[in-house]
């Protein structure tokens, strides 16, 4: 049995996760020795009865299937003793014992910045995530995110638009894409970047998977930027994991009327650095990246709700996530959380003035928006 075979057997054994594998490696030194230790030694190492039985049994069909999956070019299995395993992840407690990958492993050795945030962002938030993703990728950073709809997808799309590097960490096995609407995006990332997961093939999305995914995102990145997050969200968990690991945390401020800005404001109160441009991020982390030089001057990123490009980065998945499916509901999403003029709404939606005017009337009759002096509109619920 080769060292990789031994690691793969551990990885595909039910009940052997980060904590148990960490105990086994601490006690036995390597995967092959751990596998041959026997039931009594496994029990003394804290392995559950079910996991001990699985270790003593024949390899599962998952083991064989994973071997076949790894025969495909570009598919990888990275263990803690692999040269490609990032030192930044080894510092986590416990570190991911193994990772599955599709794509370019060289990205694991390059400076990375995570961009995370709401799954249902405003137009301006999605546009800002895409703009930051594009600018940071153009500056030579790997843009790391979690492939979720909303801010994650926009950040990946921005990096790809710059012909830059992006890395997606998933909460499922790499033979699954979640959400399914991001399947085409996942393929593009695998072709020019890297898809990464701690989870074995066949793992379906489950609530408990995503904190583990967030931990890997935080561990991989030199810094984490949060763009729009509610006070109780996975993005704040990622930010706090990054802070606990000694990494820089940045948060983008937003309108006081936007509930998705409250998580960012909370992070800023807790010590995260307020950021408005990519220069703010690069200036802060340059000291911990010896020899880094930005290949081009960084643009200033506009993040206001009135920017004419606010709709450009919004993916089809964002639209699908809206609770409204009619035109008036789509326009309600486009209004955002600050007062807005009709010209801005025409620019955001790409609709004609008549279509925007008609939908505004419907929303006003429904009591969902109010008209303000100066021909501006605002959500009645704000």
Please name the CATH topology of the largest domain: Rossmann fold
Supply the CATH architecture of the largest domain.
Answer: 3-Layer(aba) Sandwich
Return the structural class: alpha/beta
Compute the CA-based radius of gyration. 23 Å
Question: How many strands, which pairing sense, and closed or not: the largest β-sheet?
Answer: 9 strands, mixed
How much of the sequence lies in strands comes to 5-15%
Helicity range of the residues? 40-55%
What's the shape? elongated
Q: Return the string of H and E elements.
A: HHHHHHEHEEHEHEHEHEHEHEHHHEHHEE
Low-confidence stretches: 296-325
Strand order of the largest sheet: 1-2-6-5-4-3-7-8-9
CATH class of the largest domain: Alpha Beta
Mean pLDDT, all residues: 85
Tally of discrete structural domains: 3
The number of strands is 12
- For the termini, the CA-CA separation is 63 Å
Overview of the molecule:
By secondary structure, the protein is of the alpha/beta class. The protein has 3 domains: 1-71; 105-288, Rossmann fold (3-Layer(aba) Sandwich), CATH 3.40.50; 322-379, Orthogonal Bundle (Arc Repressor Mutant, subunit A). It contains 18 helices and 12 strands. The strands form 2 sheets. Strands 1-2-6-5-4-3-7-8-9 form a 9-stranded mixed beta sheet, with helices on both faces. It has a 3-stranded antiparallel beta sheet with strand order 10-12-11. The N and C termini lie far apart (63 Å). Mean pLDDT is 85; it is low at 296-325.
Quick structural gist:
By secondary structure, this protein is of the alpha/beta class. Helix content is about 45%, strand content about 15%. It has helices spanning about 5-10, 20-30, 30-35, 40-45, 50-55, 60-70, 85-90, 125-140, 150-160, 185-190, 210-220, 235-245, 260-270, 280-285, 315-320, 325-335, 340-350, 355-365; strands spanning about 75-80, 100-105, 110-115, 140-145, 165-170, 195, 225, 250, 275, 340, 370, 375-380.
